[in-house]
Amino acid sequence: MRVVTVILMGLLGCNVISAHAHSEVPLGSNTARQASSGGPDNLRLLLTSASLGSDGLEIAVLNLPGGDGKTCADKQCSSHQHPVDEVFYVLSGRLEHIVDGESLTVEPGMLAIATRNQSVIHNVLSEDPLVALIIWMATGEFDRLVEHYGLQETVIVESEDTK
Which domain holds residue 123? Predict the structure, then answer.
């Protein structure tokens, strides 16, 4: 429950303070890591296991543009695999989530799951942008995706004026 509360508070722009002094980037910090292909898409790392004092978890928020009703999340509509379990929770927009050839339309408030090494394709079906939480059941997936897709990573520093 604490993790869900922290994520929702972070998405709503609330100031979240971590009780763990050993965090890589404390939850209350004004910095975050974000990656993009250079367009309007971006993947922002919200939480790592280090923030919780444990291992085996990363949570990010994914923003993808809407458009023609079928936009490929990976720009190629190609199947890919993750070496870790992946959970999508759609906040807005509509996602086609194809796992091992089975298609599921995921709308706001719904979960989509791909277990490690399943073939998966993510397509944006809506004209509105897709916003989804992604939960990976192991650390390092954000870094792997940045490297694999050649994404441009930036560190976002939020000033006191933007809060």
Answer: 2-162
